[in-house]
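step=predict obj=Arginase n=307
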Amino acid sequence: MHGKGGFLVGPKTVRIIGVPLDYGADRRGVDMGPSAIRYAGLHEKLRQAGHQVVDLGNLPVPVPESREVAQTNLKYLDEIVKVSRVLARAVEKAVEEDAYPLVLGGDHSIAIGTIGGLVRHFQNLGVLWFDAHGDYNTDQTSPSGNIHGMPVATAVGLGHPALQASFHGRFVNPAKIVYVGVRTLDPEEAQALRQSGTTVFSMHEIDRYGMRDVMAKAMDIVTDGTDGVHLSFDIDAVDPLYAPGSGTPFSGGLTEREAHLALELLAESDILSSMEMVEVNPILDEHNRTGQLAANLIASALGHRII
Ligand SMILES: NC(=[NH2+])NCCC[C@H](N)C(=O)O
Ligand SMILES: [Mn+2]
Ligand SMILES: [Mn+2]
């Protein structure tokens, strides 16, 4: 099983990019996510799994209290567009230089920058999206105006053009996007998602077929005809029992072990070319449990094992 020089996942140069951004969630705290995940021993775990770790630190993000919220259905649009542009470039540069981008959020709006950078390099990107939510709103359908509910719609070319700037006109093929763990959608979002061509493995499918089979199907879809696979992991995919530190929790989620199993299976197949971990909010957390979980899940996806 441990074929790659004794390690499960082939050795990588993992390039960590922290994005302390909470504009997309319109609530404070998730900007401290990158620190919480690092503090939980991330570097050490990745080194143990055989990787070289280069941490670029955090991208500069101005604090929301110094900004005014414009009354629109795209809260903090300008700030998010600016950070996305810088993040997209950093991610693009990492993959160009053969490094493995590991992006630490921050709220899920940062996926706009991450995926925007990836599609400039990969012609046909597969995306695995772990989330309690669909994040498939646009400014037309969003009930909150919070941009962290919009990154998947943005990635397939829907919604406000300003959000799509980082994509340079190349979008992700919805047929290559697979959701895992979804259990709450806004009404119009659900309707749009049904017609989207994405695959949604909601909690129902996980209960019914088990995580092992769901992941086998998910991995088939995202690897077939693609030249890269990105994992976008919203920590609220995991049940709030195990991940209390997140801003939009929803019960009935993945157990801690189901989440680990999914990522261990991904490590075994070694298909990921990039990953992001988002929505860890230390203010809402209990003694950094959620930060710990996030670090452990990242380590699992990168081949960390106890034996
Ligand atoms: N990345 C997240 N946690 N997204 C939550 C989105 C919640 C809700 N669907 C909205 O659009 O406002
Ligand atoms: Mn979510
Ligand atoms: Mn999300």
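step=describe
Residues 4-301 form a domain with the Arginase; Chain A fold (CATH 3.40.800.10).
step=end
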